[in-house]
Amino acid sequence: MCMVIFAPLFAIFAFATCGGYSGQLRVSVDCVNKTDSNLSININFAYPFRLNQVYFDVPTCEGRSQERLFLVGDFSSSAEFFVTIAVFAFLYSLLATVVYIFFQNTYRENNRGPFIDFIVTVVFSFMWLVSSSAWAKGLSDVKVATDPDEVVLLMSACKVQTNKCGSAYGPIWSGLNTSVVFGYLNFVLWAGNIWFVFKETGWHKGGAARYPSSAPEKQAAPFNQPSYNQGTFDQSGGGFSGTGDLGQSEYSQVGTYTSSGPTSY
Ligand SMILES: *[C@@H]1O[C@H](CO)[C@@H](O)[C@H](O)[C@H]1NC(C)=O
Ligand SMILES: *[C@@H]1O[C@H](CO)[C@@H](O)[C@H](O)[C@H]1NC(C)=O
Question: Any stretches that span the bilayer, and where are they (predicted)?
Fold first, then answer.
């Protein structure tokens, strides 16, 4: 249930901070012949970071002539991958919330809801890890490509010693750093939720559903049918039910606590 509250919110933070980003840097070219100089050359870029399409005009310091330069690199794939995963995770977690709250019976029918939820949660956890890592790498490359000191190296005027090139300011990165942090937070959130969704499937219980241990769960959340698909998993769970017997009778209190964990998280 912790997913219900945090997952859509965290997903929004992830794609809003990345997809809504726009940055600016400013460099200056101070030519020997001052009339040719431009001391405030602004370069704007934004999501999806196709930097090789971002151009700007700089003086060549040879008369009034200017040259058109482009930034280096295309980091749209990792940025768009990250935002896509975040948007789909947002949509899925919203859908899951609605199903979980309003269609509890359908969710539990034939155990199909928990099963699908488990698979999708595992996939999204993996995708959050992959996309966050890819985007973290992409962001570090974007930082290099938009570093004013690097941009200055592209300008032919700056290769002449007598012209002075400098940077007024670089882009502000806090928004994009936040997006990476939220990417990994989402991974932790979804990966942690695997366990709770796994418990919903009832697989770990084996044939334990016939014991009254399911009663506390009834109180913890308004589950109408906490019926686990015991038939299929009786044999595989047989080995565990022996230890499960001991555990349940001895730790029935603890069991109550942990099963209500996800609700009160
Ligand atoms: C300097 O460059 C900016 C673009 O970054 C341009 O708008 C401005 O007109 C230029 N200034 C001069 C003096 O050429
Ligand atoms: C500086 O540039 C102006 C206009 O482009 C030109 O008239 C002048 O002769 C140049 N001066 C020098 C020292 O190159």
Answer: 81-103, 115-136, 181-198
CB 181 within 8 A of CB 213: no
Residue nearest to atom 11 of ligand 2 (CA): 33
At position 41, the amino acid (one-letter code) is: I
**Which one, of 117, 114, 70, 95, lies nearest residue 217 by Cα?**
114
Question: What's at 255, amino acid-wise?
Answer: G
In this prediction the pTM is: 0.73
Say how many C-beta atoms besides its own lie within 10 A of residue 235's C-beta. 10
Tell me the CA–centroid distance for residue 63 and ligand 2, in Å: 6
Mean pLDDT confidence for 129-143? 97
Asked whether 41 lines ligand 1 (CB < 6 A), one says: yes
How many angstroms is it from 57 CA to the middle of ligand 2? 20
State if residue 42 touches ligand 1 by the CB under 6 angstroms criterion.
Answer: yes
Which atom of ligand 1 lies closest to the CA of 66? 14
Nearest CA to ligand 2 atom 7: 63
Q: Which two tokens stand for residue 252?
A: 């029935």
Q: Work out the average pLDDT over 220-231.
A: 39
| Smallest-distance ligand from the CA of 32 | 2
* CA end-to-end span of the chain: 7
